[in-house]
Amino acid sequence: MATTAPMPQAELIAMMRRLADHVRDGTTDVGADVVAVPVASYLDPEVWQKEMDVIFKRVPLLAALSCELPQPGDYKALELAEVPVLVTRADDGRAHAFLNVCRHRGAQVVAAGCGHARRHTCPYHAWSYAGDGRLAGIYGQSTFGSVDTDRLGLVELACDEHAGMIFTCVTPGVAVDARRWLAGFDDFLAPFRMQDWQVVDRHEEPGANWKVCYDGYLEGYHFSSLHRDTIFKTVMSNVMTYDAYGPHQRIGFARQGLDLYQQKPEEEWEPFDGISVVCTLFPNVSIALAPRATLVSQLMPGPTPDRSLTRQTVFSMTPVAGDDQWAAARANARFLYEVVRTEDYATGLGIQRGLAAGANEQFLFGRNELGLHRFHATVAAYLAAGTGTALP
Questions:
Q1: What is the number of structural domains in the chain?
Q2: Strands (E) located in the chain
Q3: Within a domain: residue 73?
Q4: What pLDDT digit, counting tens, does each position of 200-220 carry?
């Protein structure tokens, strides 16, 4: 049994060097200038609807990590952009994604959650479907009448599994190429072997506008003020590195005491003792990497511009065994959820109220908030292009 999590050691050490230099010099990665974003982009229903239509309904969305469906027969049912989706692992080991909608009368076939089933039976009239989406049974078929069962399987969505992640697009007929979508980010992420991680806990948190919430995952400028008694005790404020991979980002944060590593030879450096790393997958996923408590946050816009829902799952990169390890892992998960709820999202809900008050016509993103520059520029590029089928 592995006790050390696999990881891209050389790249993490390189990030440590960059962050250690920033700590020494009192600097951080920066953009060319301060950037202004109209407040209307968080409020305007037409902008929000275009984000749904052009981005969330057209680009590849992370539906699951491979470790959430390790065996044939495993499944995950969830909503992506208000669309019910069922992700399965069929008997041949392949991952599939379908609209979670019965072909008889449109009921949701599988309730939200994860599980294991060889067949998925609609609770309304008991039509059942195999893991590959085929219509496998019609209750009372002799009295129902003759239908073409080959044409009545679940509606399949494009699905691609790569680097321990399963991506789909919620619009039928739109292709998904995970390797191309990741734009080289998979070279960094694949060595973490997400397919071997273990689920520790799951949580859902309601929030403000999806971009209000997502902005908080893209910078560490707020750590010393908003997270003074929590995150800031272990992670420095306003010391960051930013790297872009197409529309995605990798953000490095310096941990308290990183400067002491300069007194040690590099062969003794342990990256996650000195830095924290957050990987964001456009448009809505944050992966806060940590060997025993990786927090994956998936932000989904709500039914209106002022609401969102974040699904959070805590994973361990190595197997959790024994009562003590499980207790510690779940305590870590509860801590992370509490920080997000009482600090980040409570602030976001206040921002949402402030948006409507009219105090600001624009928000200013400092040079040190480079992650926000890149994210909002990417959103704007998609909206301007009017399609989610090509990288900006």
A1: 2
A2: 35-38, 61-65, 74-80, 83-89, 95-99, 113-116, 119-121, 128-130, 135-137, 156-157, 159-162, 165-168, 198-207, 235-245, 248-255, 275-281, 285-289, 294-301, 308-316, 362-365
A3: yes
A4: 999 999 999 999 999 999 999
